[in-house]
Amino acid sequence: MALKENLAMLRNMHGYSQEAIAEKIGISRQAYAKWESGATVPDIEKCALLAQVYGTTIDSLVRTFAVEGIGTLPPAPTGKNIWGVVTISDRGQIVIPKGARDLFDLEGGQRLIVASDEVGIALIPATVFEQIIKKGMEYMSVTSNEN
């Protein structure tokens, strides 16, 4: 069962005791311990409170996501997604998972900006990136005229 593993993982990641989490959501430590052991499960309202405390979604709270060679990943924070594993071809091509394409309305032939930091790579629709740059340039123009 995914929920019990996620509850234990999230509680430990956030440095909470079972008692501290139980207090935050208004239950006994014993009730929370039963959720982590899988003996019982929380109702939907308690799941919503748990998701809020842990900064994730109910959906992420009750599912697990495993990556080959890594193991089970903790639930993603609200607004963040894990789409799965992709393989880079010899030509440097990857296939963006369908769920990500659907969420961001990505279509074949669409231009994307490839950005990165020291941790990873981001793909930004070129139209969105261009709008951000345009707003930045407008802001710079306004602030330079004020000085």
Characteristic terms for this protein:
147 residues, mainly alpha, 7 helices
Bin the helical content: 40-55%
- Distance N terminus to C terminus? 61 Å
Domain module count:
2
- The name of the CATH architecture of the largest domain is Orthogonal Bundle
Strand order of the largest sheet: 1-2
CATH topology heading of the largest domain: 434 Repressor (Amino-terminal Domain)
Main sheet, how many strands, which sense, barrel?
A: 2 strands, antiparallel
Quickly give the structural class.
mainly alpha
- The secondary-structure element order is HHHHHEEHEEH
Commentary on this structure:
- Helix 2 (about 20-25) crosses helix 3 (about 30-35).
- The chain starts with a helix and ends with a helix.
- The protein has helices at about 1-15, 20-25, 30-35, 45-55, 60, 100-105, 125-145, and strands at about 65, 70-75, 110-115, 120-125.
- With about 150 residues, it is mostly helical.
- The model has no long low-confidence stretch (mean pLDDT about 90).
- The strands form two sheets. The protein has a two-stranded antiparallel sheet with strand order 1-2. Strands 3-4 form a two-stranded antiparallel sheet.
- It has seven helices and four strands.
